[in-house]
Amino acid sequence: MKTIFKRPDSMTDMVTHYCPGCTHGTAHRMVAEVVDEMGIRERTVGIAPVGCSVLLYKYMDTDMHQAAHGRAPAVATGVKRVKPGLIVYSYQGDGDLASIGTAEIIHAANRGEKITVVFINNAIYGMTGGQMAPTTMPNQKTTTSPYGRDVNDVGYPMRMCEMLQTLRTPSYIARASLHDPLHSVQAKQALKKAFAYQNENKCFSFVELLSICPTNWGIPPVKSMDWLVERMLPYYPLGVFKTPEDEE
Amino acid sequence: MPQVTIDKNRCKGCEHCVSACPQNVLEMSDDINVKGYFYSYTANPQRCIGCTMCAIMCPDMAIEIKVHGTQYKYFNY
Amino acid sequence: MAKILMKGSEAIGEAAIKAGCLSYFAYPITPQSEIAEYLAKRLPKIGGTFLQAESEIAASQMVFGAAGTGVRVMTTSSSPGISLMSEAMSYIAGAELPAVFVNIVRGGPGLGGILPSQGDYFQATKGAGHGNFRFLVLAPANVQEFVDYMIKAFPLAEKYRNPVMLVGDGLIAQMMEPVDFDNVASTPQGDVESWATTGCKDRETNLINSLFLDPLKLEKFNDKLADKYNRMRDEEVVYEEYAMDDDPDVVMVAYGTTSRVVKTAIDEFRKEDKLKVGLIRPITLFPFPMDVLRNLSAKSHVKAFGVVEMSIGQMLEDVKWATLERKPVEFFSRKGGIVPNPDETKDFIKNIFKKIGA
Question: Which of C200, C235, C270 finishes a domain?
Fold first, then answer.
């Protein structure tokens, strides 16, 4: 019999620490599948963030670098600039990228660093136990917005794709979602495109993946997918926001 | 008939695969695995069409799929 | 290439290149922006990597990334910028990576001033960031010495796989002095394949990491760091003895710019007052030259110590500790960016002699 689906070679066989149903695992697997399919395992360096996915470095069977909170795009810049032959990606959550790391992601994108950023948006801080993130939805209850996010008090959720899209420097910016098989397939395609742009030394690439956090949302995994569809999809439209060809 | 193998001790009982399967092949077991999760299993393996959507949705790399001969490709993953 | 007249900042940049460091990430800040300006011109021409980051935070994290690949890499800044780099410094030490930081110290705290200061002594030697780590800290006193110790800094960082810091000030960075690059030879770098992120072709994967959730592992790692720093204490202490060969009654302690003023004061004082005073000049601020001062404090001919420092007394504490205050430790300082002049330093020495009744 022919195996048509298995754990990618670029992943270790460790069982992840993620909560049941957490889509970090799916996103990890897709990145590893792209690395496998492009045959770049031996020249890929992944930058792990601070957050639930800090332990990415235990799950990826490639050279890895664990960065300080929010600094992954800068660390990735450092690696890529001195070793341009490597394929370098940073994998970050919404607290890491859209909060403490806002300056780093904006300037990495604006410089057009030839790196790929995988941005997991699950509208909450996971590792620290469910606090409000820059991407937390209006009226969404978290441990630091116990009465629901009050947009008049702390503003609206941040849409990173739309923000980065305004930068003049050519780049590939897309948002996809992991809430069902169809969208997961599209997410994988977006990742493939992003890594291809880097592999062709073309431009900065950024893929935002809408994800769920059943534990901190307090919603069972399958129902969390519905919450994502009802609450997050309308606010975070999916699609390709920018491609390097736009600027030509 | 495609063969779906679920590593029951990797499974965390999240049910994404059950929800994703278009053929109702998968169900949650009444038993628990080493970590105390009800794990997913192939209740109706004969109904499987090898679409791999269960494996695509599994966050824990617990599902491996084999087929005899050529696989009918529903989409390009 | 014989001696050439060169501004300190530019000599520091050229020294890095001569040391084999071709990767530099930085952010502008007075009084050392010229280092970046110089390297912005030079590095691209010689296949090096120059990048101005969006902040010192980002610049230092780029250094962290680049250091992880095993290349020689450096950043330079000044006091407020160095404060922003403390997170990356801790991660670099925590991931056992070689890297060189240069702090051209300016008046503080806060935005402070832009003129010379030695107010970052604690930061450099004791408080560079969170966790049990230390910098090997070098304090050159002039442009040539800065060049010489820039060359030594990279092999030292690699020997210990620990960051090294050089501290100077605006005087050294902005002044032009004769510099000789002829006898300046860099030590080649050792193999890095066993730990650096160069792509795992033909080897196990490498990981640059400072996360140790298992307390036993983190404790073991901290012991390893302690060993490193003890080894530095044993092998890397460097200091200069000036006018110390006739058993002086008073021993001055000063480093960097102030040591030059103290030397002038000593020369003039010895001529005018015929009293014996000498200077111990630490060049490594960590490891601090403890033994020489401790031994001197036990000598009968030594009646007192005089510390001159552009701070409110930071190295002063290490001198008190080193000498166990067996003899009085007097202190003279100018702050705010004011550099003590030889006359007021001579008055300070006179007062010490008055106090010890010589």
Answer: C235
